[in-house]
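Protein of interest.
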Amino acid sequence: MTTEAHVHHPNYVKIWAILVVLLIVSVLGSMSHVRVVLLIAAFGVALVKAYLVAKNFMHVTVEKRWVPYLLIMCLLFIAILFAGVSPDVMKHSGLNWNKNSANPPAQPGAGAATKRE
């Protein structure tokens, strides 16, 4: 006799419905002007959605030995992206360019002392 390993298939419609509800929560939360609600809607919902997608659609529980390698590669790519983009974003000027949005516009008459006679 052969033994078959029973693979649990998640209810994809239920997971899709949960993801749609979380999408609606995140959109409504982003319309809120309360900072705590905005942060929870942005980051909390994103973490839950990422967990659901990774667990149910990416089959991370099946390929447990590959997860640390994938995580290290993702972090390495994030570091490379940051190292490549940060000099342009963090500097206010370069050899042939200036970031004018970093310099606030001068107030008219702010530097000149007015003298009344």
About this structure: DSSP finds three helices and no strands in the chain. The mean pLDDT is 78.
